[in-house]
Write a structure and sequence with these properties.
Largest interface: A-B, 70 and 70 residues
Strand content of chain A: 15-25%
Family (chains A, B): Belongs to the DSD1 family.
Helix content of chain A: 25-40%
InterPro entries (chains A, B): Ala_racemase_N, D-amino_acid_metab_enzyme, D-ser_dehydrat-like_dom, D-ser_dehydrat-like_sf, PLP-binding_barrel
Organism (chains A, B): Methylobacterium persicinum
Oligomer: homodimer
Protein name (chains A, B): D-serine deaminase-like pyridoxal phosphate-dependent protein
CATH superfamily of the largest domain in chain A: Alanine racemase
CATH architecture of the largest domain in chain A: Alpha-Beta Barrel
Number of domains of chain A: 2
Structural class of chain A: alpha/beta
Shape of chain A: elongated
Distance between the termini of chain A: 38 Å
Number of helices of chain A: 11
Pfam families (chains A, B): Ala_racemase_N, D-ser_dehydrat
CATH topology of the largest domain in chain A: TIM Barrel
Largest sheet of chain A: 8 strands, parallel
Chain lengths: 389, 389
């Protein structure tokens, strides 16, 4: 049993010794999520490049990657620095490069011997990258971002002129490594058939773009696709060389709403203390407000709106229909889902509860560390994580 | 001119040397917001206890407080520790106390000689606090939280039995310092008359509760009210002894929508780089997604929906109708407001823009420091801030 602290017994699970709110990570669920996705990607016979933007932790990364040096994907150059410094050398920075960030990219490559690649989708970026590579003598690896579904960035897969133009400009000074896609619209789906179609659309767009480049005599050794929903639902990945995914590691209520995981698979939760009650309104007040949960309301657009999170007991078992119905900065208001016939549990002041988040990436970013629960459900370790840029 | 960095000239404003996204703080606007609220509160002849939950920075606190030792309000015990360690000794922790946090409160009081007060609204908390005070010999100062408008926590001002019961239990071991209210429903208003009425309702509820305590022979030396909207709109504060407010320091688009500040008063903005374009969709893509802006969509419920933020040029001048229409983790999608007849500005890849946030508390919490713009608009200093619990 952990040592008593702050006047209360820590309990057999050690949770009573933690300051609330804090972030819990269930190591067994994490491990199961990791091996499930690894098996899924291996079944397709393609390489796996996990996205470290959700966890931002070397401890999680070492469990998730196929080797201690990568491959891995990052969403910020701060992540690239953090992971490269810790031995992860095969990295793709999967957000369109701004030219004034190239010197920082070069420093990470040089200082850590990292094979850090960038992505882009315009002639202007391609020219800037090529010019930078020629000037510095560092032949930067570059992916052309291709847009499979109109979600965000990327060249349309059928825009052969633009693909060739970018490819030629990149290859004139830098290293054209391939194409990279992210089927972000899949987050709006929940039907398995539609998700399989989204995965197929992502695959087909990738191949179309890759073939355009190769037909123009340009190299395209890597064809990279990925999102947690499409990686989970792809029927096959013929022609694809690597898959990326990130939020699958932890899972969350949005992914459960999509069907990429079950509620019981969610590996992160926020530990909170009950600090008050409003029986006249049916409210239980906790110290986990939106600062602790994030402002993410991703389930609001899904079939089941989970408010700011689904409330579980200290052992992680969900209460029937009890959600974080409202949130202020440091106050969470627990209430039964509208129309629920469930009984509101009796949770005296000081009771510890665990809250499953809508969006693991957003919630985890509110914390500097994970309190890791071992296979006996005991808070056994603290794993740091990074934030910022 | 700041030193060139990352291959680009920093520019006369020094902004080109900063990594994007980052958080800018306009010192002149901050100072004007601070003096405006100070004058408003002084006009009412009451003490001012600024809330440090928005800024979480000792540099900002020292400008905002009436003295270097406080008074001040905090929303977490981590803030209390941080500010007490830096000389702020008169502190109210304005979130209902969980009994297992009392030892941490006691450590802050003892270690820094801080007069750190707590708040509560139940018999169970009152008994726990009194018992703790008797056991430790530290007579903890306690406010009874009173609910003026059904927003969140607090005893109803007319519930005389509960007020007396809590007051008697507190006074049996700890120090009953008074009542504390927060008119949180005022955030949903925008009409100046309605805001003045909300301020009057907060005042009246405070006096009713204070009179109930005093009629029962209980002490109530401090009568504390506050929210940025009510503090800005109160007609008078007779009978009130102190006012609290926090977000007024920076202002934000939600406060501008309420009428507590003008858009031109907003002191914080996110510096972002343009990283791509989707002319077919009318989109400009930046590197400031929801991780940089927060997921707060507080203006969605107001007359003018600002998306994830209002876009300004590098000098801070808003573009006509250009907002962050969508956001992914590290991508912001700029687009004209729906139905706008404005011309989309030409912003090539690499252009720096500044984005005004919906909610300063949420956006600032995504950063570890402020890049402070001096009166010439130059990035002249870096002020650290804290996050977490």
């Amino acid at each position: 049993m952990a040592a008593a602290k702050d006047g209360l017994d820590a309990g057999a699970d050690g949770l009573g010794a933690l300051q609330t709110p804090c972030l819990l990570l269930d190591e067994a669920k994490l491990a199961a999520n990791l091996s499930g996705m690894r098996a899924q990607v291996e079944r397709h016979g393609v390489a796996f490049r996990p996205h470290l933007k959700t966890a931002k932790s070397i401890d999680v990364a070492l469990m998730a990657m196929t080797g201690p040096g990568g491959p891995a994907t990052v969403s910020t150059l701060k992540e690239a620095e953090y992971f490269a410094e810790r031995g992860v050398r095969d990295l793709t920075y999967a957000v369109g490069i701004a030219p004034h960030k190239l010197d920082r990219v070069g420093t990470i490559r040089r200082r850590f011997g990292a094979d850090l690649a960038v992505i882009l989708d315009s002639l202007a970026q391609a020219e800037a990258v090529s010019e930078w590579s020629r000037r510095t003598g560092d032949r930067l690896p570059v992916f052309i971002e291709v847009d499979p579904d109109g979600h965000r960035s990327g060249v349309k897969p059928g825009d052969a002129d633009l693909l060739r133009g970018i490819g030629q400009r990149v290859a004139a000074g830098a290293e054209l490594r391939g194409v990279l896609l992210h089927a972000g619209e899949s987050y709006g789906l929940s039907d398995p058939e539609a998700l399989a179609e989204a995965a197929e659309g992502e695959r087909a767009a990738a191949l179309q773009a890759a073939e355009t480049l190769m037909a123009a005599g340009l190299p395209c050794p890597v064809v990279s696709v990925g999102s947690t929903p499409t990686a989970s639902h792809a029927r096959h990945l013929d022609g694809i060389t690597e898959v990326r995914a990130g939020v699958y590691m932890f899972g969350d209520l949005v992914q459960a709403g999509i069907g990429s995981c079950a509620v019981g698979d969610i590996a992160v939760s926020v530990l909170a203390s009950v600090i008050g009650h409003r029986p006249d309104k049916g409210w239980i007040i906790t110290d986990a407000g939106w600062m602790a949960m994030s402002r993410d309301r991703g389930t609001a657009a899904q079939a089941v709106d989970q408010g700011y999170g689904l409330v579980c007991d200290r052992a992680g078992k969900p209460y029937d229909d009890l959600i974080v119905a409202q949130a202020n900065q440091e106050h969470g208001v627990l209430a039964l889902r509208q129309g629920s016939g469930a009984q509101r549990p009796d949770l005296p002041v000081g009771t510890l509860v665990r809250i499953l988040p809508n969006h693991a990436c957003a919630t985890a970013a509110q914390y500097h560390c994970y309190h890791v629960l071992d296979r006996d459900g005991r808070a056994a370790a603290v794993w740091p994580r990074i934030n910022g840029w």
